[in-house]
């Protein structure tokens, strides 16, 4: 029997209850785990690392040596969710992404929610992610975010909370797929003992979503990548290969008569849908940054004319900006006339003087984030910060309060994880991927990210976090 370090008494653990009893959905897994020798498990973990290297599943981190790539640590103890819990989570995700798409359509058209005063107009219209070029542009089916990655955590009250909505170019789905493939290869007997819902059909669902994003018959779909120096290049190539579509860079495309064409060995071919993994400002040097070498001159004009679909749409970033996040429950009520099924984390907006005063008085207790920040960068975790770090952030907040929000330090749930000391609880989140097309579809599970350092709440791979397979049990 393996010794599993018990979780902290105040933290919700995914496998063990407060009295250290095993949660029912982990019963069978723990029985299996206790039948495995430590040497066998160590050998399987080494095999996984070797295979990930061989396949090329690496993650480049900006600021590292440009030729250096990092393997994202993979843990072989899965995060398991029972079927009923997943159904509740799935319904909340579907509701949330539907409301966010309605919000995006509204703010680029009539602006009803702004006129109703539910969200301050200047917070949207003056937002750096708001693209005036999208005003009045009608998109097929009114879909702006075709692919959304919603980060959810479980607090010590046992409830799920949405930490953030990723609607621009959410990444990580390739690791979700490869983690499952790896677990099935290393431990096939586990899948004979558990009815685990499949995730391997995600590429076909993604391709269906992209094809339904346009009114064109038999559309040509491509994946647009910034190139192999991008941190997520492996994923771009992987998804293109899995969908059976071309992976292109900006130089492979050109615009003629407001239509986009791809250069091929057989001549020029019109492109109908671009799954773009390039940020807004680099998409078209004629419309945004003139120094961009990643985009396609004239792409915006072709897009505005309705001759090509971009997934996700230009201007979606305003809806996943952290200053807009506090209003998502209001969006659900406003557009859907429903109560939100998923909780938001309480949030203080530092742009408001009274809320800024509260944050400055409690910096050592709060998490402070840049409104445009991502990847775990540009944030303060008060309880873990030094006095110098807190003083530095205090100065930043006073100098530019509108650039920050603050939230209570939530106790992310833990999940048993293999670490150097053995098996110990480590904090974890989950990023399900939501596809909005003809219907809203979600593969059961998502990318489970785990903070590998004891006590750390930062799960981002760019900050040294690892990943796990996420299982949704079918019964």
From TrEMBL:
Domain of life: Bacteria
Protein name in the entry: Uncharacterized conserved protein, circularly permuted ATPgrasp superfamily
PANTHER family tied to this protein: BLR5612 PROTEIN, SLL1039 PROTEIN
Cited Pfam families: CP_ATPgrasp_2
InterPro entries noted in UniProt: ATP-dep_Glu-Cys_Ligase-2 (IPR051680), CP_ATPgrasp_2 (IPR025841), UCP005522 (IPR016450)
Gene3D superfamilies registered for this protein in UniProt: 3.30.1490.270, 3.40.50.11290
Classification via SUPFAM superfamilies: Glutathione synthetase ATP-binding domain-like
Positions of the Circularly permuted ATP-grasp type domain: 78-451
